[in-house]
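Troubleshooting log. The previous structure file for this entry was overwritten by mistake, so regenerating from the original sequence record. Sequence copied from the archived sheet and checked twice against the printout by T.R.
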Amino acid sequence: MPVMSVAKFERFFRVAAGLDIDKADLKRYNDFINEKIHDLLIRGEAGAKANGRGIIQPSDLPITKGLQECIHQFRELDEEIELKPVLEQLAGLPPLDLAVSTDTEQRLPAIVGGLSLALARSFTIVHPGLKNPQTEHWECAIQLFNLLL
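Regenerated output below.
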């Protein structure tokens, strides 16, 4: 990841939740995002199949009310940080049985942004006062997301 991207992510986590992250955290973050996007698309694929469609539409993705709110809040934050172009590069599509519609694909960076905001804020909800997440904090946050997504 280019140095500018690292600086933008550091700034994002600082603005979103008052957290100081480093390059090691970015690897964890990237792994988290790839896993959660894959999980959402797998569920979206099941929804599309259940509705007799051969393509995953945005309505097939299991976007909860809370995640939707985080997506909207991310859009407001992103105007200041301009992270969306970086997130577009991260939102790679995993291999699936069904195709993903163009509309769904175009929404992935915002979904990644919402997931990112939810992740950042989850650290301080579970560990109030946390400033520099360590491995155990990442593991805890990821376990919570695995329960819910």
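The two ends are 26 Å apart (CA to CA). Archived copy saved in two places this time.
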